[in-house]
Specification:
elongated; 13-stranded mixed β-sheet
């Protein structure tokens, strides 16, 4: 999830005392020595063009068993990201760390809401677990966590994840989401203990986009309309109608407003209006195909594809996939990716017929935030 286009950072890492700092240069944050050196510099008052990293004054360090649970220190950010992005006991490579930091700069993510579990050994070497909340438009957020946490820190890790959610709730977010590897039972147990409920197993799929994709073979009288802002309500209302009788997480109905849902779709990647298409017959909307460009990658993602109930079973889903491939190629993308509920067998068969192949799966978890929150089944990331 790297940044897009021109990065907003310019002149290194600057800070405002112990309370917050501004991430301006990914290279400095990716270098622990530079980050530690910059910590002693006098913070300027200018905060324009960077990513705020707060010290979470509303949450101080607490002890859980033998472990400290607290907000990340600036000098630990590189190590914390490496630990968070690692897979089942392996630390992430530098390239992945830099990708995330670029993404953080571009999206103005408050890295100070990152919660860590640390031992007696001070500094980055003492970190054992990281929970990083990433806010998403539409009132929801993703919390990215360290994989395969050891059993001895389970209670502390659960506390760190809960604290990350508390920060999101205080900022007005309504839902938190976590994705876990199906093999990672240790993290699943921690996520559940922090009040999350399981939503679905997601199947992630990928295919190459051919140099000359087939022209969408639409039935007579059916056409595609490209999104513009004047058509927003038409797209929103059609998406809402496609949810009726859907096999894709039916528990979703009514959890978020449709405006929140559409904001989440728009923020799924780099928004390209030409990537959003409405399927229409005689001015009657039949379905939608919503794509997004994956930032800094020659990839397009199928964010959402759906048909209204009366249009199902009429041979439209195949041409809609052809439209997705054609749009991806027109925008210079070499690959098409998507995520689908593993229980949605018809959709998986459709995607397989159009060359999509499974690359991995993830368990999706959700938690309501704020008053009345608790373990709940509410939504599914990326396709809600």
């Amino acid at each position: 999830m790297p940044a897009k286009n021109s990065p907003p950072w310019r002149n290194g890492v600057t800070a405002r005392g112990r309370g917050s700092l501004i991430v301006r240069d990914v290279a400095d944050l990716s270098n622990p020595t530079a980050a530690q050196r910059s910590a002693s510099q006098t913070p300027p008052r200018d905060t324009d063009g960077g990513v705020r990293v707060s010290g979470l004054a509303w949450r101080q360090s607490e002890t859980v068993g033998d472990w400290q649970v607290r907000p990340v220190d600036r000098s630990e950010i590189h190590a914390a990201v490496r630990l968070m992005l690692g897979r089942l006991g392996e630390l992430a490579e530098d390239a992945a760390v830099l990708d995330f930091l670029r993404f953080a700069v571009a999206r103005k993510i408050d890295l100070g809401q990152m919660q860590v579990v640390a031992g007696d050994r001070g500094g980055a070497e003492g970190l054992k677990f990281v929970a990083t909340p990433i806010a998403v438009p539409g009132g929801s957020a993703i919390v990215s966590c360290t994989a395969a946490p050891p059993a001895q820190i389970a209670d502390a890790a659960s506390a760190a994840l809960s604290r990350a959610c508390d920060g999101l709730a205080d900022a007005g977010h309504k839902l938190a989401q976590v994705l876990t590897d199906p093999k990672d039972q240790a993290l699943d147990a921690i996520v559940k203990s922090a009040g999350f409920g399981p939503i679905a197993e997601l199947v992630y799929m990928l295919r190459e986009v051919p140099p000359r994709p087939p022209t969408p073979n639409l039935p007579a009288g059916v056409r595609l309309e490209t999104f513009d802002e004047s058509a927003y309500a038409r797209f929103r209302d059609t998406v809402a109608e496609t949810y009726v009788g859907s096999l894709d997480c039916p528990a979703l109905a009514g959890v978020r407003s449709m405006d929140d849902v559409m904001a989440g779709h728009r923020a799924a990647g780099d928004f390209v209006p030409a990537f959003w298409q409405l399927v229409v017959r005689s001015d009657e909307p039949l379905g939608v195909v919503l794509l997004a460009r994956v930032p800094n990658r020659p990839l397009a993602e199928v964010v959402y594809l759906g048909l209204v109930p009366q249009a199902r079973g009429q041979g439209l889903s195949g041409p809609m996939m052809q439209a997705a491939l054609s749009a991806a190629r027109t925008q210079g993308c070499d690959g098409l990716t998507l995520a689908v509920d593993a229980a949605n067998t018809p959709a998986i068969r459709l995607y397989q017929r159009h060359g999509m192949r499974q690359i991995y799966t993830r368990n999706a978890w959700m938690k309501r935030l704020g008053q009345g929150s608790g373990q709940t089944v509410v939504s599914r990331p990326g396709l809600a």
